[in-house]
TrEMBL record:
It is found in: Cell membrane. It is an enzyme of class 1 (oxidoreductase). It comes from Saccharothrix tamanrassetensis. Residues 470-535 are annotated as: Disordered. It comes from the Bacteria. Its EC number is 1.10.3.-. The keyword RNA-binding does not apply. This is Cytochrome d ubiquinol oxidase subunit I.
């Protein structure tokens, strides 16, 4: 493999890994803020237990996200130095804003939230978690503004062969980021929602104490998941329309559309090798005229196929790479303007498919656990735990599609923008040897593997600990420490949810269903006792 391939593998591995943490932090932080708000408003100890339990998992995940995010920044300078020089003048502003928001606002308020449980007035403490979660969303906006600029460069002029920023406002209001931002945030909610549903359903299955906590978490997760998937479909449709105008080759690659069609049908599923240049052997299940609608809101728009687009790209951006030793094996070779079609075609479908499965399983779990029921078969455990992975996979395929679909460009030319503001990926890499890149690729993959192990270990440990592990006065009993399904309590009897206005009254959470004798937790802790517990 040459430097370019190794650098791309390194970028893909580190980025997909980093983006497992990011959406969970964004989605979960807002849900935890909502849970804490419910507790402050109602005083119901169930909401405090939810805040503490999910908040603990949020913190573990946040820490891993920061560690892997910092590596991202280093690798740009290390492996993609030509790219960093090219985009430096544009990215300086949004990335500085991201740094300020992430390091000052996000970290400060997170620290205040962690250590402020027994020190800050309740409402001030609540404001901290809101400030933290809103800052994490703001920092995502700035990163996406930078990424969207690479998909659709705006707000620049070309000076000495490099783009120079002349309007940060244009970069921050790029229509590409205005569509990508809500899509990514809905994706983050889909991840957090499935996390809640999967873990809470598993706790119910094993007969853990604190049943009201898990039932409310399943409900919250399911409805957030359904709204998130609806939001993803609406914002994804907007992105498709922009893609049609801004990156026609990516549009054709999403469909593996070889020949121009008018009206164009949407391929739901294909049998055969979609990478074949002549496409003749591919059998596809299609919905007539749907692609025209996705592209342009009507059922007759012509969508250009790869065969017609390639000559257009060749005319505008050249047929061969320049002869330049920095281009390695590609020096002087013909430019391949067609992305890797099986990746783009299936990536697009897997993004949508995994998102749909995630929302669907949420609804199924909600129905299966209705009215205090809990299925006891092992299949339910696998359904619950397996569904956690689905939106993570959906997000990963979304990014893989987005980034692979713009190849061979790293900065895609804007069809109506300034001439010359684009960059081939082959030009973007550092002047390193394959051995150097291979070393960092292996090292980072190993380090990330260890970090993944640490994250899974910690999350597993705190999940198994249940509410009792994070909130004193809860019942650790029930078969929660074991793995099998508990015998279950009497669902819905008694004051399980804790209706009193004293926070931490102990009713409900840890009422000891399953094997435990029950009701042990109702020791009537005062709110101050609860608040005195910091993470
Ligand atoms: C339901 C229908 C959906 C449609 C029509 C859709 C459409 C799109 C399109 C067109 C893009 C590429 C934008 C570009 O490269 O310019 C994209 C990217 C992406 N999608 Fe989806 N999507 C859908 C569902 C999902 C789901 C369910 C998830 C996650 C669970 C998801 C996560 C992502 C991510 C992370 C990206 C990359 C970031 C971005 O450009 O926003 N999408 N989607």
């Amino acid at each position: 493999m040459d430097v370019l391939d190794l650098a791309r593998w390194q970028f893909g591995i580190t980025t997909v890994y980093h983006f497992l943490m990011v959406p969970l932090t964004i989605g979960l932080s807002l849900l935890v803020a909502g849970m804490q708000t419910a507790w402050v408003r109602t005083g119901d100890r169930k909401y405090l237990a939810m805040t503490k339990f999910w908040g603990k998992l949020l913190l573990i995940n946040f820490a891993m996200g920061v560690v892997t995010g910092i590596v991202q920044e280093f690798q740009f300078g290390m492996t993609w130095s030509a790219y960093s020089r090219f985009v430096g003048d544009v990215f300086g502003a949004p990335l500085a804003m991201e740094g300020l928001v992430a390091f000052f606002v996000e970290s400060t308020f997170l620290g205040l939230w962690i250590f402020g449980w027994d020190r800050l007035p309740r409402k001030a403490h609540l404001a901290c978690v809101w400030a933290f979660s809103l800052a994490s969303i703001a920092s995502a906006y700035f990163i996406l503004a930078a990424n969207s600029w690479m998909q659709h460069p705006v707000g620049v002029e070309l000076v000495d062969g490099r783009p120079r920023l002349n309007s940060i406002w244009a970069v921050l209001t790029n229509n590409t980021v205005l569509a990508a931002f809500p899509h990514t945030i809905f994706g983050a909610f889909a991840v957090a929602a499935a996390f809640l549903v999967g873990i809470a359903a598993w706790q119910l299955w094993r007969g853990n104490a604190d049943e009201p906590v898990w039932r409310s978490s399943v409900k919250l997760g399911t409805w957030v998941g359904v709204v998130a998937f609806t939001g993803l479909a609406i914002t994804g449709d907007l992105q498709g329309k922009l893609m049609f105008e801004q990156q026609p080759m990516k549009m054709a690659a999403a469909e593996a559309l070889c020949h121009t069609e008018s009206p164009a049908s949407f391929s739901v599923f294909a049998v055969g090798d979609v990478s074949r240049p002549d496409c003749e052997d591919v059998k596809s299940i299609t919905v007539p005229a749907l692609l025209s609608f996705l592209a342009h809101n009507d059922f007759s728009t012509e969508v250009k196929g790869i065969d017609d687009l390639v000559p257009m790209y060749q005319e505008k951006y050249g047929t061969n790479y320049p002869v330049d030793e920095r281009l390695g094996e590609l020096s002087g070779k013909p430019i391949d303007y067609v992305p890797v079609l099986p990746v783009t075609y299936w990536g697009f479908r897997l993004m949508i498919g995994f998102g749909a499965i995630s929302a669907g399983v949420g609804l199924l779990v909600l129905w299966l656990t209705r009215g205090g029921r809990t299925p006891r078969g092992r299949w339910f455990r696998w359904l619950a735990l397996g569904s956690i992975a689905t939106p993570f996979l959906g997000n990963s395929f979304g990014w893989i599609f987005t980034e692979m679909g713009r190849q061979p460009f790293v900065v895609v030319p804007n069809p109506t923008g300034v001439d010359g503001v684009w960059m081939f990926t082959a030009r973007a890499v550092s002047n390193s040897t394959p051995g150097e890149v291979l070393t960092s690729l292996v090292a980072l993959t190993l380090v990330y593997g260890v970090l993944a192990g640490v994250e899974v270990f910690l999350i597993r440990r705190y999940v198994r600990g249940g509410v009792a592990g994070v909130l004193p006065g809860s019942d650790p009993g029930g078969p929660g420490s074991g793995d099998g399904p508990g015998s279950g309590g009497e669902p819905g009897t008694g004051d399980r949810a804790g209706s009193g206005d004293r926070a931490g009254s102990g009713d409900g959470v840890g009422s000891g269903d399953g094997a435990g004798p029950g009701a042990k937790a109702g020791s009537g802790d005062e709110a101050d006792d609860v608040l005195s517990f910091a993470y």
